[in-house]
C-alpha cells in the first residue's frame, strides 16, 4: 500500500506505513494556525482552532499529529515566513550546498531543485557553487525569490508540477527539501514527483527534517503545530525512502531549525551507504526511542513545564511586573496556547523592525506583535524569549540594543536569567 496523500480532518492510521497501531503521546489542546495571525478587527470574530495531539506509530516509529488542516489554509498566499531573514539562518541554509559539493560528484552545469524553496536562500548556495537552480514554492514569497534572481515556480510540488518541470527543464542532480517531509500532506505525490525528476546515475535527494531526538531531548514540544504533520527519527525516514526505491546513503545531525537530521538518498543501487546511517540507527535504539516508556516520560515532563512556566509568570504578574514576549516564530503559538499565556500575562510580543508580523495578533491567545524599538524605549521588567531555540543570540542582540531588564527562558526548563 502506498503512503497516504492526506485529506483534511482526523487521521486514524500512520501517515507513512498505514498501520492502525498509532497511539496518543501528548495532548496540546486546541490551537489556531501559527502563521495565520489575526488583525485587530478579527479579535471579536469567530475564530477557528484545531485539535493538536502528538501520536506515535508502533510499527514504523513515526511521530505525527492526528489532525490535518487543509494545505491551502496552512500555507496561504500571504504566509509571512522569509528564510533569508537572519545571517545565522542564511549560513545554515547555505550549508546544504557545501555539503553536497564536498561529498558528491556532479556533471557540468547540473540542476538543483529545492522543494518549498521559500525566498530562495538555500538555492543561492547552489547557484554560488555553479549549479543551475530552480525553486518550487506555493506562496507569494516565490515572487520575492524571482526578484532576487532565483528562478522559482509558484506551485505546490506534486507529480503534476514534476511533470511540468520535466518538460521544461532537465533532470536534477540534486533535489533538496528542508522540512518538506513534515509539511507536505501529499507525501505519495511528492515522492513520485521527486523520483521522476532525479538523475538516476548520480542524482541525490537531500532532505533535512527536524529530528525527533532533539524534540524529545530538548523539550521542543512547541515545534508541534499544524504545519508539521510528522516528526522523524532516522528509522521511519529510511522506511519512507525505501518504499519509493531510494537508498539512504548518508545521515547526519545538523543544527538547522534547532536540531535536524540531514538524510541523503539515491536511486543508484551501486552507491554504498556511509557508516553514519547504521551509527544513528544504533543510537536511536540504544537510547530507547523505539520504546513506549520514553514517550510516557516525555509527556510527564511537558506537563511539568507547563505548570512551572505559568506559575512563574503569574507570580511575577501578581507582583505587578511588566512581562513581554520576544520573537514570534511559528512555535511560539503552540507554547502560548498550550500554556494559556494570553495578554493577561504578557503585554505584547516584540519583533525586529523588518518583521512581516508587526501589528498583528497571535491566534488563540491574542497578544499584539509590535516593533522591538518600543520595548527598548519602555524597558519592561521581564522578556520571555519565545524564540528560545536561538536564545543566546536573541539575548545578546537585545542587550546590544539597550534592553536592561531580565530574561525568562521558557524551555527546556523555565528559568529567569539576569
Ligand atoms: Zn507507521
Please, could you describe this protein's structure?
- The protein is of the alpha/beta class and 418 residues long.
- The protein folds into 2 domains: 83-290, Rossmann fold, CATH 3.40.50.150; 293-417, 3-Layer(aba) Sandwich (Rossmann fold), CATH 3.40.50.
- The protein has 14 helices and 19 strands.
- A 7-stranded mixed sheet has the order 8-7-6-9-10-13-12, sandwiched between helices. The chain has a 6-stranded mixed sheet with strand order 16-15-14-17-18-19, sandwiched between helices. A 4-stranded antiparallel sheet has the order 2-3-4-11.
- Helix 2 crosses helix 3 and helix 5 runs parallel beside helix 7 (187-197).
- The longest helix has 27 residues, at 292-318.
- The termini are far apart.
- Zinc ion is lined by residues 14, 16-17, 19, 57, 59-60, 62.
Name of the CATH architecture of the largest domain = 3-Layer(aba) Sandwich
Structural class: alpha/beta
Which overall shape is indicated by the principal axes computed on the Cα atoms? globular
Under CATH at level 1, the class of the largest domain stands as: Alpha Beta
Mean pLDDT across residues: 94
Largest sheet: 7 strands, mixed
Strands ordered across the widest β-sheet: 8-7-6-9-10-13-12
The fourth-level CATH homologous superfamily of the largest domain is: Vaccinia Virus protein VP39
User: Based on DSSP secondary structure assignment, what is the total number of beta strands?
Assistant: 19
* CATH fold-level label of the largest domain: Rossmann fold
The helix tally amounts to: 14
Q: What percent of residues are in strands?
A: 15-25%
Which compounds are bound in this model? zinc ion
Approximately how much helix is present in the residues? Answer: 25-40%
Question: End-to-end span in angstroms?
Answer: 55 Å
